[in-house]
Amino acid sequence: MLKFTLDKQPRGTCDGISRRHALRLGSCGLIGGLTLPRLLELQAKAALPKKATAKSCIFIFLEGGPPHQDMWDPKPDAPLEIRGPFKPIRTKVPGTFVSDQLPLCAKIADKYTIVRSHSHRDNAHSTGYHYVMTGRKANFPDGDNPVPNNDFYPSIGSVASRELGPRGALPAYINLPHPMAAGGPGFYGAEHAPFVIEADPTQPDFEVKDLRPAGRLSKRRLSLRRKLLAGIDQLERERNRGQAKVMSAYYEKAYRLIASPEAKKALDIQAEPDKVRDAYGRTQIGQCALLARRLVEGGCRFVGVDAPGWDVHFNCFPSLRTDLIPYADRAFSTLVTDLEQRGLLDETLVIMMGEMGRTPRVNAKAGRDHWSMAQTIIFAGGGVKPGQVIGATDKHAAAPTTEPIGVNDLLRTISTLMGINPDKVYYGPLGRPVPIVDGGKVIRGLV
What we know:
Elements lengths: L18 H8 L9 H12 L8 E7 L17 H4 L4 E3 L6 E3 L3 H5 L4 E7 L6 H10 L21 H9 L8 E4 L18 E2 L22 H20 L3 H17 L2 H7 L6 H7 L3 H14 L4 E6 L8 H26 L6 E6 L3 E2 L11 E2 L3 E6 L7 E3 L16 H11 L7 E3 L5 E3 L12
Parallel strand pairs: 1-7, 1-8, 4-12, 5-6, 5-7
Antiparallel strand pairs: 2-3, 4-11, 8-11, 9-10, 13-14
Helix pairs in contact: 5-13, 7-8, 11-12
């Protein structure tokens, strides 16, 4: 059985404070009238998160590692083997330039902020993904790719699920168009696992098929089956079979979705006008971004969009020019604009990034390799100050020349914007304290 204790340590007196601490703190009453109850009250208030500015988060993950110097951090004065074939263009923000492959994002640069100094030391895909989503280094070698691969530490999406809960009929945490590699709940358990929409929204017959009752199953028969299943689950739990509890959480989520007209409406991307669907792009990342907007409208807290294909080791520039950057450019720019027009941008945090950047120098096979020492993250909405560039890299985009922004700075910033206390502690299966975010600082100037 897993035991989770909230916000107090399993030792000392029943209120979680050792006798030594009680004596030491109690003596504070001798100074300035600061009694122990008053001190504890102040500590509790200090631990509370600031008022949330973001009700939801859309996290677009460019899996494989997008090349920052070919997108958001161009180096036009570097040699060709560093700068690549793309050229910088002006944006709507004076003095800010991006790659000429991002013309749509250039036009709305006043609506988002570019953070160019993200840096960490995990230069591999599966372990880097784990690090970004959980804030902890992986305990497995790169190339070990079960999904989810975070069997202990919860992902940021699962944190949002546990701390904030759903705002409506939809699950609090959703992945699409397939599971995020490190997007699992860890020791938080199945209740906070993502609901995965494992289907391609670009297809004409797209639907979340698992939410359609089989055949002509009536509401009454569905209710009877649910009661029968609940009885079986109870018997299994009485036999101490943990799998029954796990499956029960999944069944309950599925039932709520099947029974909810609001959930079905949010997932019906076919209801969108062709004009809107075309604006996002009839691509997987474009239609996933549109569906993510519908999901946050429906009350989802955290939508993770996994967009693969960015591991560009060989002959990368044709695919970057035709298949990758333009699709991301259209999806992100339209999503931000659409959220703003609907009055949702201020309460929806949008982030686009990958697990790493790419090498400064183009390799002998006309590609760029793994490079975690420098990467760009794009932030919009949800309390972020827009129209900025935060941080900088050297003349080859190889390393930050300003204070590096780490993974836990990113996760602390997301938590704070969403009204989650990043210092809150849960206890793992063995009683070890696990804070929501292990260190880090809110990104200076972003909030």
